[in-house]
Amino acid sequence: MAKERDLANNKRMLRIGVDVSMLSEQPTGIGRYTYEILSRAVSMGHEWFLYSHRPLIFGDWTQKNVHLRIGHMPKRMLRMLWMQTAVPFLASRDNLDLFWSPAHRLPRLLPGRMAKVVTIHDLVWKYAGETMRPLSRWLDATLMPEAVRIADRVITVSASTAKDVLSEMPYAEGKLRHIPLGVSNLAPAAELSSLKAIGLDAPYFLFVGTLEPRKNLTGLIEAYSKLPVELKSRALLAIAGGKGWGGVDVAAVAGKFGVRDRIRVLGYVNDEQLATLYEHAMFLAMPSFYEGFGLPLLEAMSRGTPVLTSNCASMPEVAGDAGLLVDPHDVDSITRALQTFLGDETFVRNLGLRAIINAQRFSWELTAQQTLHVIEDAVQSRKK
């Protein structure tokens, strides 16, 4: 079917390789980005070759125009080694027209004749490097600029990230293509009562994200602790997300600020639980120090849940007029925003209505179409 569609459109069938290693584990931000685009793009034509250092556990890749190239390196830390050594050999053998990396880095030894596209989600290593593992920071600082240099096209997920890339890597001029992300159809939301099973038995506001310093969870908890008792009693703080690097001990932070009994740490949640959390939350609180896009903002707004987020990086362009912006470095700024959300029902209701409208600006279908166009354009540019 895909081949017939390409022939009908007089388009040459391309052989496209993709790093899908992040689909070998339960996906977070970049993994979901890869899945949402690829699951749509494979139905738009061409031949797709998917490379991973270990078996995939997420997504259905049984389409006739999809070919899996799976390694046998079970440990996550070996992913980079496999991508930098085995993948160039396999990609050459597969005679690819183009290789796309959805995650910041390109294999260094890909054949020179092969077009290359890389997606840059953020420059955390530059603007919030202290929140990363030292090795990860060094690898991104080394391999990301090189990937941008050798790529024919560079996709960024926000205008803010595009600006950051150009500031740090001016040789990206002319290569950059800004393609916003879309809204994921996580799952139907369950009833509010279902959340009792994971410890939520009262109204709550929500934090979603990996537990790491960049997310400013410590600042959020401190700001929450400074609320008047009456406002604090109106909502629990529910925290959903797996542990990251940086030693963010939520229980210790909550104990330090005297709010341990008002916080529920839920850990990693599945798609149905996440959809239910978004659906019934009073609002989402995401006062990060830095984000390349901020998918939870969009996922929350698509369900009519307004957002509290930061006034820096990509967050204002995603939140639009459906968010209340704070200075993430000023705890009192966050406290004032929490007071507004917990004390002004009319404000929250109106912001929720704007959230639904704002979220309609974003579509994974459009993101996939635009990404495929960039891929085709990168191949075509080699012929000029």
Helix content: 40-55%
Please give the oligomerization state of what you see.
single chain
What does the largest sheet look like? 7 strands, parallel
Output the CATH class name of the largest domain. Alpha Beta
Query: Strand pairing plus helix content: what structural class?
Result: alpha/beta
CATH topology of the largest domain: Rossmann fold
> Radius of gyration, Cα only, in angstroms?
22 Å
Q: Judging by the overall fold, what is the CATH architecture of the largest domain?
A: 3-Layer(aba) Sandwich
* Cα separation of the termini: 30 Å
β-sheet strand percentage: 15-25%
Please work out how many helical segments DSSP would assign. Answer: 15
Number of strands: 13
Largest sheet, order of strands side by side?
3-2-1-4-5-6-7
Unreliable spans are: 3-10
CATH superfamily of the largest domain: Glycogen Phosphorylase B
The average pLDDT score comes to 93
The count of domains is: 2
Shape: elongated
| H-E order | HEHEEHEEHHEHEEHHEHEHEHEHEHHH
